Amino acid sequence: MAPFTSNQRFLQTPYITPHILHNSYAATQESDRYNHLLGRDLEYFSQAGFDMDKVALKRNAPPAQLYEDAVRNEGAIISSTGALINFSGKKTGRSPKDKRIVYEDTSKDHIWWGSVNIKMDEHTFEINRERAIDYLNTRDLVYVFDGYAGWDPKYRIKVRVVCARAYHALFMNNMLIRPTEEELKNFGEPDFIIYNAGQFPANRFTKGMTSTTSVEINFKRMEMVILGTEYAGEMKKGIFSVMHYLQPVKFGQLSLHSSANVGIEKGDVTLFFGLSGTGKTTLSADPHRQLIGDDEHVWSDTGVFNIEGGCYAKCINLSPQKEPEIYAAIRFGSILENVVYDPISRSPDYNDVSITENTRCAYPIEFIPNAKIPCVADQQPSNIIMLTCDAYGVLPPVSRLTPEQASYHFLAGYTSKTPGTEDGVLEPIPTFSTCYSAPFIVLHPGRYASMLAERMAKHNVDCWLINTGWTGGKFGGSGKRCPLPVTRRIVDAVHSGELKNAEFETFGVFGLQVPKALEGVPRELLNPSLAWSDKQAFEREVRKLAGMFNKAFALYEKDVDEKVRAAGPQL
């Protein structure tokens, strides 16, 4: 027999080790075992336009099988910790300018139309929907995931995801609430469907299209179509937009872009509002409290519940020292998205941003040790914490807000992005994101703000504005970031009731109530006017920021009560 040489069978054969199947599995093909689509389910796919003679469907395939498919077909990598490293292609973030909502009779009078919610006509949606299904029909394998959005059975919706990538199926397996076998067996017709054909471009010459990317929601059909982007976060935030519409309109409940936790001893619930970089995820992770969720919640008539079944955490500069729980959650079953890895060891490099700064990890919430499962608290919130990162260094580290001030700051949604040196920007960039969720707002912001005010008044909820940004000066000058231990001490004082019983003084132009003293926090930190050595510079920056607030809030002035208008900074 001739000696075996390279370039022979090992390169030609995709599998070296044959499958060894469990004896109860031996007579069953994978497609049969995980294709629980029978009767009306199959009829649904046929009616939707799927060629059931050609397309193989995998419904709610387990993570191990999705790993195999992603490695085999999509170039995915298994990291040294067991997570699946996958890549979203050209798009590494959301495409807000390509988001559309169909203008139709059932929802048109509720939608806040404008730059966030751009109109699309029904005919164009039908064209794109058919384009997406035509593309999915060309795939040898199509994935279906059926799950829930919302942990409270009274208000949850059934979601079906139809996609062509194992990466997308595993992502939504992690981000939606996973049904039990019995729930899946009796799932029935979904309330909302996502058709994700993101590998295939939209036709930019179709009416209303501005690019080859299209992310569109139709509330009459209760469907979402994705073309021209493989970024998985579009599905997550698409479901949030749907819940941002359905919860107030259909259920009369308040959907919120927030994290939430509950005290282990007292059972007291706290909601954390905040934009990216303010500490929402970090501060809601507390060893003395259980995590309800880190991003999307509903404040219902009976308590607070998480919308999602998982977390979608940023990975940039991630370390076990900074974020030990998130770091430990990156294991088998989780997805690392667009993360660079060592080609030999397969170790992720969280400091490498050569693909994107928006590196992410999606994992089931059960991977967080102190998560509250089910992710629902049958208790009304005791505290609301609004987080801001003020790079101008003029807002106090903590302020107690009146109900009117709470409505004002909720509508304003202020934080500031620190400038990057590469683009030469020397000033902080102020960001006003109404309701702390402007890209996902569906109804007029005043509607969410009114519901928030009503619930706060009904349940006597305390509201706090906490600045995790700069103090003693502004970014790039003499200021320093407020130390995380100080902010944690403030949050602990909120939860213990210590702050509620403190003595307060009024903070200048913004009219905020600031504690005079808090054990463990220096007096000059509590009142920024004492921390700045240059008092004139401080006054200039205060007035400058106040002017920005007034300009941003002008968009909502005519729609809010006079008391709310007066709750902002006074120049």
UniProtKB/TrEMBL annotation:
Family under the similarity heading: Belongs to the phosphoenolpyruvate carboxykinase (ATP) family.
The keyword Transferase is assigned to this record: yes
Keywords: ATP-binding, Decarboxylase, Gluconeogenesis, Kinase, Lyase, Nucleotide-binding, Pyruvate, Transferase
GO cellular component: cytosol
PROSITE patterns xref list: PEPCK_ATP
One Gene Ontology term from the biological process aspect of the record: gluconeogenesis
Entry superkingdom: Eukaryota
Molecular function per GO: ATP binding; kinase activity; phosphoenolpyruvate carboxykinase (ATP) activity
UniProt pathway: Carbohydrate biosynthesis; gluconeogenesis
Keyword presence, Nucleotide-binding: yes
Reactions accelerated catalytically: oxaloacetate + ATP = phosphoenolpyruvate + ADP + CO2
CDD domains named in the record: PEPCK_ATP
The protein's name in its UniProt record: Phosphoenolpyruvate carboxykinase (ATP)
Pfam family, one: PEPCK_ATP
InterPro entries associated with the record: PEP_carboxykinase_ATP, PEP_carboxykinase_C, PEP_carboxykinase_N, PEPCK_ATP_CS
EC number: 4.1.1.49
